[in-house]
Specification:
The protein is α+β, with helices and mostly antiparallel strands and about 120 residues long. It has helices at about 1-10, 50-60, 85-90, 95-105; strands at about 15-25, 30-45, 80-85. α1 (about 1-10) packs across α2.
């Protein structure tokens, strides 16, 4: 609920928290590769009126986010510092995954739409 999101953000206000994200590549039930990341986010201190304005702008959709924010949108205003990879914070350590795939012949260079 928006009330629960509001309380969570009040609890995180002015604090550092971590987001953990993992990716696994498997074939036929066998794990071929995995990668784990842990990123640190510092939420800035903010007033309750700022928080209420943020929640009004973010809307009900924010309740679908585990952190009650979308970093790629208006939620960026909540933070004073972010230490880590943007894609990992969004939920997938994309760059390590792309590196693994490329090292195994899967990537743009194998695409039929390859440009000259």
């Amino acid at each position: 609920t928006l009330a629960a999101a509001r309380q969570q953000l009040l609890d995180l206000r002015g604090q550092i928290h971590e987001l953990c994200s993992s990716v696994v590549v498997a074939r036929g039930g066998t794990r071929l590769w995995n990668h784990n990341e842990r990123e640190r986010l510092t939420m800035r201190p903010f007033t309750e009126s700022f928080l209420d304005a943020y929640l009004a702008r973010a809307g009900e959709g924010i309740t679908a986010s585990v952190g009650a924010y979308h970093l790629e949108g208006v939620g960026a205003h909540l933070f004073s510092r972010i230490d880590g990879d943007y894609f990992t914070i969004l939920g997938l350590p994309l760059l390590p995954l792309l590196s693994f795939l490329s090292g195994h012949g899967i990537g743009l260079e194998t695409s039929p739409e390859k440009s000259p």
